Each structure stands twice: as structure tokens, then as C-alpha cells.
Amino acid sequence: MADLPIAKIVERKELSEDLWIVKLKPEIDYTFKPGQYVTIGSEGIERPYSIASAPYEPFIELFVELVPPPDGNLTPILHRLDLGETVTMRPRAKGIFTLEPAYQDHLMVATVTGVAPYISMIRQYLHEGGSGLRFFVLEGASYTDEFGYDDELMELERDHPDTVKFLATISRPAEKRNASWAGETGRVNTLVEKYLAAYGLERENTLVHLCGHPGMIEDAKERLTPAGWNVKEERFWKD
Ligand SMILES: Cc1cc2nc3c(=O)[nH]c(=O)nc-3n(C[C@H](O)[C@H](O)[C@H](O)COP(=O)(O)OP(=O)(O)OC[C@H]3O[C@@H](n4cnc5c(N)ncnc54)[C@H](O)[C@@H]3O)c2cc1C
Q1: Domains along the chain?
Q2: Which DSSP state fits 197?
Q3: H or E element: which one contains 223?
Q4: Nearest residue CA, atom 11 of ligand 1?
Q5: pLDDT digits over 206-224, tens only?
């Protein structure tokens, strides 16, 4: 571990008590494909994180959720780290949850931090001036302040209406913290078929990406795979 490169925390944005976006400046040249993950560590504990930034950007951006002790090990440490402090970083990005441009349409389903790899894919695609592909992001959270990239996705939808669509849903509409919400409600896995139909997507041209909570992925797969949809998944932990 002593030989691992380090990365400095250069920006931090708190979304809620247990969710934050962090930008890291690696001491090495770090290359990755949109959709891949970086393995970072502190105090000898390492965990993988999907990269939200795009390869063209100067920093590595992550969207992290605190898993409080006793379950969580690294995130309580990361949660305490301030600007200027460092984490270790495995030098090579990993993962095959990457964009498959052979499909025209991409339904990108996420629970909270699971939106990170889609942000990387969409930013890079638009940066390169891509055209022809369409991204439909469905993000589910318990609370309205947990989406992380909703402002960016809504802006991208406004600026690129033929390329990006964003739908956010909350699973606990009755709670006070969600009082201002006027959008979609229900767990995102229960809405996948509704939005495949609403967007007029077709099996031959569509890849459904599922990322985040393993329970969401399991349920969505049970709905989609027997019905003939192509599905690709990235589970953030084991059930
Ligand atoms: C490919 C990949 C990409 C990932 N990308 C992200 C990411 O972008 N953002 C992010 O916050 N996490 C991501 N994770 C999860 C991350 O690697 C850690 O597992 C998580 O941050 C918790 O670490 P920990 O050491 O605090 O807890 P761990 O020691 O890993 O233990 C966590 C335990 O708590 C439970 N748990 C409850 N909620 C969560 C949760 N949200 N994440 C993980 N476990 C949970 C599980 O049962 C798990 O076994 C990713 C995981 C994988 C495999």
C-alpha cells in the first residue's frame, strides 16, 4: 500500500448529512473510460468508486454516500477528510460498465450515487460533439436532496433535448423532507417499464443500464430480462 499513488481533495460539496461530491487531483496521469471505477483508500482500507467526471476533465469526481459504522469502514473516514488531505489511488481504472455505442438508445437507471457513471458517459459524449445516441436517465432516491446531478441533467435536457432526458423519482413522498416534491414517486425499479413505453424505446436499439443498489438491480432485471430487453449492470454492494 505504501507505494500507491495519492490524490488530493481539491473540492467537496455536501448534498445532505450522508452524501457528498468530491473532486480529487491525482499525482499521476490517470486515464479511464467513462463508466469505469477508481479504487481509493485511506488508513489501509480501499473501496471502488464509479467516476462521475469525464476523461477530458482535470479532476476525478466522485459521488459518495456515507455508510455509518458499524457497517461502513472507508466512508466514515472519507467523510472526515478535508480539502488538501489525500487518499491513495490504484493507478489503473477498472470496469466494463462502459458505453456501448452500437445501441442507439440508453436507458440509464440509478439509485442515488449510481448515477455517477452515466454523468461521465454523457459529459464525454457531448464534449466530443457526439450525435445519434440518446440517453434516458431514470434516478431514484428516498429524498429530493439526494439526486446530486439533477440540476446538471435538467440543464442538459434543456440544451440537448434530442439527446438527454432525465426523470427523478422519490420513494418516500409522504415524508416532510419531501414536502416540496411535485415529480414522479415510487421506487425506480417499479417505473422502468412505464418509461421504456413512455419514451417509445424498442428492444433492438436499446441497452438498459442498471447501477447502484443491488435490490433495485435484481428487481429491474427480473422485470426486463424475461421480456427480452438487453441489460447491463453495476452493483455497488452485495445483498
Ligand atoms: C464497481 C463499484 C462502484 C462503486 N461506486 C460507488 C460510488 O460511486 N459511490 C458510492 O458511494 N459507493 C460506490 N460503491 C460502493 C463502495 O465501494 C463502498 O462499498 C461504499 O462506499 C461503502 O464503503 P465502506 O467501506 O464505508 O463500507 P463497507 O465496508 O464496504 O461495507 C458496506 C456494507 O454496508 C451495506 N451498505 C449499505 N449501503 C451501502 C452503500 N451505499 N454502498 C455500499 N454498501 C452499502 C452493504 O451491506 C455493505 O456490505 C461502488 C462499489 C462498486 C463495487
Answers
A1: 6-89 (2.40.30.10), 105-235 (3.40.50.80)
A2: H
A3: helix 214-224
A4: 64
A5: 999 999 999 999 999 999 9
